[in-house]
Specification:
606 residues, mainly beta, Ubiquitin-like (UB roll), 4 domains, 16-stranded antiparallel β-barrel, 7 helices, 29 strands, elongated
Length: 606
């Protein structure tokens, strides 16, 4: 009924590296397989009844049987057994047992039941431990610098896949240092048999090649934007050393301009052994944008009518293809209060990374005052993300005839300050990760004129602070957490209605009327949890928190106080043929559906 056979083989796994083993106390020169086959194995369609292992200590019988069976096919075949044994030895290889082998296989068949029992005899050998790593051919990187980028170090178990990864890490480090043509290979691996381990000596040879320099940037696809603008914004230095992160950095710099619909990853073109060129292809997109917000605030009375509020923001980001920028903003807070703002930016003054910006701002506050401000700012671009600058502003406040002149005086304020901005967002329009940070601090002098209760010609010092911080982080698949914090502060011994900040509404504290709260110190935060349905479309829930410190201004009947507010709601933003359309429903404290605030926003590029 039963027949037995013995299949002897000494199988060792390949290391899958370009490795040369030299003779030592134990030399390994490949895989030697000896087959002694019995005629019993010729039985057709024999099912495996059991598999037993002998000589195994590192892995259990169950682990080895699961690895050997693979897909669980119970029909015995030579090819399936060979593949299974390869998987078993590969399992040992990943645990540093590089010299494990199969001594023999015994098969006992039951011809009546058409079943066989398989017994596998293993010789696990000893674990291989790295005892020495040697480098040759390296001139510009030290042994310590090379070892720092490797996962395998002396004393670690020798796992060949990790060594393969380390070779790639070495090449990446050379690429990062300006040697993209560097080569690294395993020159030799030898083993010495000791009492409880196989001590490995690894020799790595490096051909560094020559340091690569960039001779220039070739541009394709631009029709409106001038070549010198793209080269300037790429910030590629003359004869700059090529590093592996340079192409991606160039792409990000050009993407930040927001004037191209797509920018290719620059490609390296060899000129000779020491010089290369970069070529980039751009597709010009819509270089101007329109941003509009329409809001509806229900009446606070029973028989009153609601109020429409609005915001229009137009930005021209590439005037005449030169990278110059012009923007205009108009904002209506209510029926009798509105703001107008203009800004012009001249980039790269005298071919230096310095931008010059001039601006004008005007606010008409119902029947109280008109405020006008002129400013000049210079910005130094220290890095791709970090910008510092200085700003000078001249502000005039003019009370309107009648009520305005009774509660405040006309005034002139001159201020000087510094600005710091950091922006690492991956996409300014729809960021999914990154940080935006901006701080402005100003100090100045305020001189009052005729009107109000302040003495004519009085001078007071002023200080103001503007702080903005935004944080974006993906959480789960197609989900993003957006968090923002904003602070505003103004201090002076002579405060009037033009000096306070107004918060509330679509862009600050949602769920409340535009400019509902006044304070000399205000803070608000916005939290949104976004569910992305397309690259630029999402729906979200939000919570806004605000804190207002109201000063005492006797002429206006304002008393010192502090209060905190919360707003919450839901919204959606969709990418359409008209542009980005956003709709939000916001609730303040005590609001119902009939008193909720509705905001509609349209952002279009042209």
């Amino acid at each position: 009924m039963g027949k037995g056979s013995v299949k002897q083989k000494c199988r060792q796994p390949s290391v899958h590296l370009r490795i040369v083993f030299t003779p030592a106390s134990l030399a390994w020169k490949g895989i030697v397989t000896v087959f002694c086959l019995s005629m019993a194995l010729a039985q057709p369609s024999l099912k495996v009844r059991s598999i037993s292992f002998f000589g195994n200590h590192k892995f259990s019988d169950y682990q080895l049987a699961s690895t050997l069976s693979g897909r669980g096919d119970s029909v015995y075949s030579e090819s399936a057994m060979d593949s299974g044994l390869d998987r078993v030895l590969d399992l040992y290889r990943h645990e540093a047992y590089l010299h494990a082998c199969v001594d023999s296989i015994r098969v006992k068949s039951d011809t009546l039941l058409q079943e066989i029992d398989v017994r596998v005899f293993l010789n696990e050998g000893k674990p291989s431990v790295v005892r020495q790593i040697e480098f040759s051919g390296c001139r510009n990187l030290t042994d310590g610098e090379l070892s720092a980028v490797m996962n395998i170090h002396p004393g670690d178990l020798f796992i060949p896949p990790l060594l393969e990864q380390d070779i790639q890490s070495i090449l990446h480090e050379y690429d990062r240092r300006g040697y993209p043509l560097a080569k690294a290979s395993i020159q030799n691996i030898s083993f010495i048999d000791s009492s409880d381990e196989m001590a490995a000596r690894i020799q790595i040879h490096i051909d560094e090649g020559k340091e690569m320099h960039i001779a220039g940037l070739r541009i394709e696809g631009n029709q409106t934007t001038k070549d010198f603008v793209i080269i300037r914004e790429a910030r590629l230095k003359q004869n700059e050393v090529f590093r592996s992160d340079l192409p991606l950095a160039l792409k990000r710099r050009l993407d930040r301009l927001q004037i191209f619909s797509s920018v290719s990853l620059p490609e390296l073109t060899m000129i000779d052994s020491e010089q290369a060129g970069l070529s980039v292809r751009v597709v010009e997109g819509n270089q101007n944008s329109f941003d509009g917000v329409l809001g509806y605030v229900p009446s606070s009375g029973l028989n009153g009518t609601g109020t429409l509020t609005g915001l229009v923001n137009i930005s021209l980001r590439n005037l005449f293809g030169t990278g110059r920028k012009l923007s205009a903003r108009w904002f209506q807070e209510n029926k009798s209060s509105q703001e107008t703002e203009l800004h012009y930016l001249e980039p790269w003054i005298a071919s230096a990374p310095v931008n010059l910006q001039v601006g004008f701002f005007q606010r008409k506050q119902d029947s109280t005052f008109v405020k006008q401000q002129y400013d000049v700012a210079a910005e130094l671009m220290l890095t791709d993300e970090l910008t510092v600058g200085a700003k000078f502003s001249q502000c005039g406040v003019y009370p309107t005839a009648g009520f305005g002149q009774t509660v405040m005086a006309d005034s002139r304020t001159s201020s000087f300050g510094i600005t710091i901005r950091y922006d690492s967002r991956d996409n300014p329009a729809t960021p999914s990760r990154g940080i935006f940070y901006s701080t402005e601090y100003f100090t100045g002098s305020k001189k009052t004129g005729v009107g109000g209760i302040a003495p004519v010609g009085a001078k007071t010092s002023t200080q103001s602070l503007v702080f903005d911080f935004s944080f974006y982080r993906p959480t789960f698949l197609r989900q993003v957490l957006a968090a923002e914090l904003h602070l505003r502060g103004y201090s002076s011994n002579s405060l009037d209605a033009a000096d306070v900040f107004r918060i509330g509404g679509a862009s600050t504290l949602r769920g409340y009327r535009e400019g509902q709260f006044l304070g000399s110190r205000v803070a608000w935060s916005n939290f949104e949890y976004r569910f992305l349905v397309a690259p630029r479309s999402y729906f979200y829930g939000f919570v806004d928190l605000g804190h207002i410190v109201q000063p005492s201004i006797i002429a206006l009947g304002m008393t010192a106080s502090e209060q905190s507010k919360i707003g919450y709601g839901i919204g959606v933003r969709l990418d359409s043929a008209l542009g980005l359309i956003g709709v939000s429903f916001a609730f303040g404290e005590g609001d119902t559906f009939s008193t909720s605030k509705i905001h509609i926003r349209l952002m279009n590029e042209f």
